[in-house]
Amino acid sequence: MNKRVKFIYLLAFAILGFASCNSPKNKSKKSVIDQKVDSLLSVMTLEEKIGQMNLYNGFWDATGPKPKNGNAAKKYQDLKNGLVGAMLNVRGVKNVKAVQKIAVEETRLGIPLIIGFDVIHGHKTLAPIPLAEAASWDLEAIKTAARNAAVEASAEGINWTFAPMVDISRDARWGRVMEGAGEDTYLASLIAKARVEGFQGEDLSAHNTIAACAKHFAAYGFAEAGRDYNTTEVNPSTLRNTILPPFKAAKDAGVKTFMNAFNDADGIPATGSQHLQRTILKEEWGFNGFVVSDWGSIKEMIAHGYAKDNKHAAEIAAKAGSDMDMESYAYVKHLAGLVKDGKVKEAYINQAAARILKVKFELGLFDDPYKYCDEAREKEVLGSKELHAGVLDMAKKSMVLLKNSTNLLPLKKQGLNIAVIGDLADDKTSPLGSWRLAAEDNTAISVLEGLKAYPNNNITFASGPKLYTGTPTFVKETQINTTDKSGFNEAVRTARNKDVVIMVLGEHGFQSGEGRSRVDLGLPSFQQQLLEAVYEVNKNIVLVLMNGRPLTINWADANIPSILEAWQLGTQSGNAIAQVLYGDYNPSGKLPMTFPKHVGQVPIYYNHKSTGRPKTSDHDANTVFWSHYGDISNDPLYEFGYGLSYTTFTYDNLKLSAKSCNKKGNIKVTFTLKNSGNYRGKEVVQLYIQDLYASIIRPVKELKGFKIVDLKAGESKKVSFTIDAKTLEFYSANNKWEAEVGEFKVFVGGSSKTNIEDSFELTD
Ligand code: NOJ
Predict the structure, then answer these.
(1) Same structural domain for residues 487 and 553?
(2) Any catalytic annotation for residue 341?
(3) What's the pTM?
(4) Which residue segment(s) compose the domain that 683 sits in?
(5) Segment 434-471, tens digit of pLDDT
(6) Is the same domain home to 440 and 551?
(7) Within-domain flag for 433
(8) What's the domain count of the chain?
(9) Under 8 Å CB-to-CB from 54, ≥6 apart: which residues?
């Protein structure tokens, strides 16, 4: 920090610090950091405070020549004038140091910048996409994956990630389902906590921890018709019971920032919603970090038809409690004028700037603004062996075995003639998935490379038609190949007379993600045709799926003997897949999101409410007057919580410790889990309840607990869960969280379809 600046700041701190020491009231209330924030605010001009609320995208080669004109020059000037509080998309120690140096050494007060980046699933060394990680149900592993991502990103100068995305997603058409934890509020809440704890670590001021950001607040995952950025309709009960709990879990885990959302909810853009940001988040929940807008979401309120112009948008957003403006230029241009005109209270500016400064203090940026800028560490940490080992472990835990009806898997390690088919089999980019801004193309281990690490089988590869044309960077839907069938016949020929065919099919890495909504959930390009043609010549097919969302693979499910869901597993993808195919790792993942049979069924999710006309045995076989489709069953292809293993598990002896309990008591649920197959394996045992009648209709099943149980072949273990009033709470018609007396069903099993059940009563 430059000496003059430090002097002003220290002087202010000394005076205010002294004053507060003499005031017993303040002393007991304010933390040291809050006192420092107050001191700093006291010497800041209105413009400087508003500057803290301004987040700019990286705008020039920071180490290169200064920009002379255009937007970049303007941003550069703003930075020098202390009108920028944070920057995103600047990475690499040299670059971060360069911008930080301007903020610290050239501005009047020398306040350091926060450096943000989308560290979504790893950084340069990529872990599986978040939806895949969620399929592990392994909270420790997920936390470690976030921890590792923070270690790598912070070594590149970054101290703030725009993750975790904790939006509940029930519609596979929405491309961003890949970025979340799926459809279940309970599972997603625990994962939100694990990710926040992983990124932020135990000490946010350490050089290898980064501030996390719970996004997108709120209801973004409910985009109508699965079309990204679309409007949402959410009633207060769904908002409270389904959408908000993962955000609350992130808040309770100490998340430092929230990001608001592009969508409107019931006619109010989330970015302009006082109800969400001020009333619920800040007042009701007591969140004391800051809220950042999504990219341009303040000015997008004009397109929404909610703000007249950018000035009006700034006024709405600031009043609503959106503390930092990402790339709308609304605050930096208009807020000072709005305060001077009496349109926005100066207190709002003080509060927003204070929240941002507080996070800067907590990160330790005032003690050492260059703490993330160590070139030696950057060199040592980026792409290290330990990080590769971490993403490999996470990748193995994320796979879900969907089918293995003839026990084709695991494969023998020698003597097999194997055909490997599919353009994705030697794709070294798609497995990286979407959101991989710091990773280069072609840096994943392909399936083909992974399989070659097992040298005693004979592999012949044929790509079949290309999945897309052009370069692999940011592939667009228009690049998906729908015309050139070359390679098709050769692939079919290659599959003939082989012992096993491994077909690697699915989506390109950029077919899911932001702005990547699709209405067709089938296999794109010529892949379905190829699968059927290969099946004609060889039925011993193992289908390895790579995709960022649930797919409708009914034909494959009906015909292909073995199907492994391998999502987009990141840098070590091919090694992880090969180890699972050869049985060196027994898959134990379970789906965090329902796979529909038909896109017409979406939104489809296991914890739906019951209608007044569910399917009952009373229905005459011919009646149509119940809630169903005439042309397809209501059932999904694969339900939430589903996933197989190379071994089998049986559930027995379900017992409840009592048939009723009051609100102060509890009920112990026990059962025996047996590994009834031939391999050691892990089972994610799941506990569901159903509240049979309530002041607001409750779902037909709700996940309320799970455990990962590791058993040797033939081994049994007693498993138990405890249910109490807290477990049974929901946001009721009384507008509060409470458990209501009445009857409940309890289910245990290996998926949400389980019908191993008992029941009990909750009394007052
Ligand atoms: C827009 C996305 O919605 C958000 O999730 C992301 O963090 C920002 N862009 C910054 O890249």
Answers:
(1) yes
(2) no
(3) 0.97
(4) 649-763
(5) 999 999 999 999 999 999 999 999 999 999 999 999 99
(6) yes
(7) yes
(8) 2
(9) 78, 83, 84, 85, 86, 324, 325, 331, 332
